[in-house]
Hints:
Layout lengths: L1 E3 L4 E7 L2 E9 L3 H14 L5 E8 L5 E5 L9 H10 L5 E8 L6 H19 L3 E3 L14 H8 L17
Antiparallel strand pairs: 1-7, 2-3, 3-6, 4-5, 4-6
Amino acid sequence: MSYTINTHSEEELKIKASKFIAEIFPVKNIEEVYLYLNQVRETHPKANHHCWAYKLGVPMETYRANDDGEPSGTAGKPILGQLDAFDVTNILCVVTRYFGGTLLGTGGLIKAYKESTKEVLSKAELMEVKPIYKVRVEFAFEQIPMIMEASKRFPGIIEEKTLQLIHF
């Protein structure tokens, strides 16, 4: 079972003088991901890092994570890991970091990005997402009544009907 959100949420954590602002956004496509990402960058232009991850789709998922200058694997992966842990999709999480002067080390960064994401997700209202499957069925003309009757027993919609004539 997968979940999603329908509204933007934000949580702030302070860890050793650094400020971490975790934001989640409901997204439907890659264009929305980059729209919200640019919006966060404009809102926090003086921040040191805007690390992020997103997941799209059910049941087939597209995902990506970005460390935005933090050491490799210390930000984007922990954010994505929390999206997986909460089993959410159609979501973007951006964690903005204002450096507070104290180096956290790789372990500290991983923990900070993970905890920031966990905090915002745990306070968000999650909604169940039902998977969408597209099925293509090909059959002989004589079978149309049987196929149409059978399709009434399954949830869903018929998006397209095409008759293909075959010439011998």
